[in-house]
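Researcher: Quick one. four chains, 1168 residues in total.
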Amino acid sequence: MKVGFIGLGQMGAAMAANLVKAGNELTVYNRSPDKASPLLELGATAAKHIADACHGGVVMTMLADDHAAEAVAFGDHGIIASLPRGAMHISCSTISVDLSRRLADAHEKAGQRYVVATVFGRPEAAASAKLFVVAAGAPDAVDSSRELLETIGQRTFTMSSKPEAANLVKLSGNFLIATVIEALGEAMALVGRGGIDLHAYLELLTSSLFNAPVYKTYGGFIADRKFEPAAFAAPLGLKDIRLALAAAEELRVPLPMASLLRDRFITLLAQGGEKLDWSAIGQLAAKDAGEG
Amino acid sequence: MKVGFIGLGQMGAAMAANLVKAGNELTVYNRSPDKASPLLELGATAAKHIADACHGGVVMTMLADDHAAEAVAFGDHGIIASLPRGAMHISCSTISVDLSRRLADAHEKAGQRYVVATVFGRPEAAASAKLFVVAAGAPDAVDSSRELLETIGQRTFTMSSKPEAANLVKLSGNFLIATVIEALGEAMALVGRGGIDLHAYLELLTSSLFNAPVYKTYGGFIADRKFEPAAFAAPLGLKDIRLALAAAEELRVPLPMASLLRDRFITLLAQGGEKLDWSAIGQLAAKDAGEG
Amino acid sequence: MKVGFIGLGQMGAAMAANLVKAGNELTVYNRSPDKASPLLELGATAAKHIADACHGGVVMTMLADDHAAEAVAFGDHGIIASLPRGAMHISCSTISVDLSRRLADAHEKAGQRYVVATVFGRPEAAASAKLFVVAAGAPDAVDSSRELLETIGQRTFTMSSKPEAANLVKLSGNFLIATVIEALGEAMALVGRGGIDLHAYLELLTSSLFNAPVYKTYGGFIADRKFEPAAFAAPLGLKDIRLALAAAEELRVPLPMASLLRDRFITLLAQGGEKLDWSAIGQLAAKDAGEG
Amino acid sequence: MKVGFIGLGQMGAAMAANLVKAGNELTVYNRSPDKASPLLELGATAAKHIADACHGGVVMTMLADDHAAEAVAFGDHGIIASLPRGAMHISCSTISVDLSRRLADAHEKAGQRYVVATVFGRPEAAASAKLFVVAAGAPDAVDSSRELLETIGQRTFTMSSKPEAANLVKLSGNFLIATVIEALGEAMALVGRGGIDLHAYLELLTSSLFNAPVYKTYGGFIADRKFEPAAFAAPLGLKDIRLALAAAEELRVPLPMASLLRDRFITLLAQGGEKLDWSAIGQLAAKDAGEG
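Model:
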């Protein structure tokens, strides 16, 4: 399939690589073009402009935030101006529900198809095509996107015919992960102060009721106090909680745990955590308790 | 082995049954004696008084709260007064760290051995001997208790030579479970308001990053709004969060998520939830959002 | 003095009336022009367009939110396009620090002067020229605005040479008022449940340590459960807390009480409180406690 | 009047001094007897035992906490055992509602009268007899106590015929003061980061909407970062919030602001604040924001 791919960060590059390897004819675009090199070696073509990535039937985007997604989609030479009628935009970025709704409207006016396919999984999962994909959009459009989505992930969950629903699910999922980090941070600050070995504690938790990857991964980071290098940096964590809270405010749903997480991320950033993994909020309970 | 067992609530009765079935010579005591009947049919002997359950080398207790545990242990005819020197008390109750420390002191003065063996798992797990057991105490005492503990659970985790450490771990574990309930309650209030089907959402979560029993069990209760009958009633949830907060205060560890949970449980009880399962706090975010 | 005045809501109309009565030659503009009638009777002139209010040396604005303030200031026929070089814009609206900074930049580029003069006080205080005015901007500009500010208020506090500092102070002040409402709501829910008469309790508080107008005013509303008509409606309260949180996030200052207030306002609006006074959040603690 | 007075801390000593100066025949008792010296110089008599302070018609107590109050009241030689039938105990201590209720029951059984008269005001106010007194109890008992209460305070507020209601009001009042400290701490962290001078900001607040002594006193401490010497030490602040939360839990009233304050006090103590004034929690928002 002829596919454009825009946004070659850690996640995007890994997803694009799997698309090339699966035999798709990929044209890739990134604001800083050097990120494209490894993909060109795999056989992808470099797009000089966004428009060059919009000539196939499908363009996929994996961008860092609303600002980037808005810049790429709108404007004189953006996706909406460049994509042919009937062609499809598959947006994988973690962006706001509000922007996604505006994208849906704009694509509809332009006679283009729009599917949101957000993904769960850290860069390793992206590299091994083990992402979980949450898709939403018009049923026929989601169907058309299915093969591509199965190429980047291990399973696709279709959630709604409204594309922005997949953004809401993604934001809620990152909120849930952050609650795990904070909860582990508090529990481990408590039992650690009580003299319990944190690795033994984590072994107990993850062998019994909490035998899920998120507990293992983040519990390990907290037990080791190891938050670098960042697979998902703290400012992105703050961004996602902010977007979850904004969506919740619009829907009139108070989320007290998300409010608490927002305060934690701001504290982390205020204390110099810009470069740390977002799981470094898991150290703040111990810090409040006078450690380190 | 000759074993006394005190406390025949939902959990205790199931644990005692497994001990009898495994061939132990069990003498059982419960404040309201009718609870003993099913065990007597299995071959256990009824104790008229607490002291009658203290004549073997071991007495196990599984009581509802500090009040009950204190009443059974102390006093003229309690465990400490009745147990022979060198005999062992295995305390499985979810009680305060403070009371457990006082029990440890009292047993030491009386020349008795004291092991704390708290358990994770709902009544079904107790019935099928699938509990996870968290043990702490003097290493030789824990060793002596191992066979009994393996009879009631699927795995025993030894955490510390200080008995009360197992109480702290148990309280921290119930705190972690409660954070899952609240986090799911908030996330599901949000995506539900956004038009997502809650069962599909839960399927996504528990097939991907959150594939742990607690998410399945409690997420299902919240999606179905089904909080009766209570396997673990709301007042017990409040009690455990209160005990976790008390232990944390003594250790000087602030736990903002536990504070939030405490407020949720009080709200639930204030609004008539005394008889509901503790997971009914998972409905409060939706209620705040104007539903139901 | 020839003065334009834009924004004739409850507050703006009262402020404008005092400016006319003090002898100023006032040209008034409001999006819905009927609001101008009482002022015309006092001697003001009606402006058909925003630009018509920009012909004197000064234009004052008192608008509901960022959206309104942005619409009035920018655009082809807005204040910035219409105001002569050297003329002054005095912005009294409660708007975001971010928008205020953008206004400062735009005015500077246009060679215009910009003073922020936010006000504290409810509509009665505006009517009797008893507002407290918080001014910020270039010292000579603030000096030039002083006579007008003294006409609408009882005292002017100059806080900074950066105009947007006065917006920050205003937002922080509304945050502080909201903390009083919430704190009173919680305290009164508690003592009320304990059988104390709420009016006697309020008399005690406001005769002793809390003898400030905010405690009297809002405590009375809560004791009487009287939140209509709204002098300052709940959605405006949410807006101001949101703006305070946004400013705080930019400055990397976590504000846990503001987070709590944000959740309260969302809950109030979710439960049908759009038309209530913002002090109706003071009823939510009692509601959580099962009352009403 | 012949009066016993037990508890000669900062507050109690000042109150006792005023009672002596007003001509009462005072017998004073303190656990560490040297505290009595200044009062003996004023004409008071020293009691060797608690019972010696119970021979007049009235004994007043001003003790640090539940532990001290319980020790003094109960036991073989405590107040309840020593006070004649018909004599009165006026309890001024900030103790739990629960203990106060137990005291009420015990006094009733012993045929003694029991009035609770809690006080608001810092040590300076106690010294100058400017306390605000909150009284509760049987109306005739409160009447009999009135002259004494007017000797120690500037005004007496009678709140209820149930003595423990005055304890609840006192705890709620200290909760309200703590909300002011926290709110000022957050607001001042915010505007300070925004470049506003904190003393000018405080002058604005306390000259306008927040012209109450608590804002002036505590705002000044926060602006000056001066939390020593402690007029009311941080551990007492934690104790009072804990007691307010316990009373609220019993009455089934969730108090989210009190939960937040509890976490703040634990953080302060964890970070070495045992000797600081309780208003030092007002520095924690700035600390979270990376200052100091």
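The longest helix of chain D spans residues 164-193.
Researcher: Thanks, that's what I needed.
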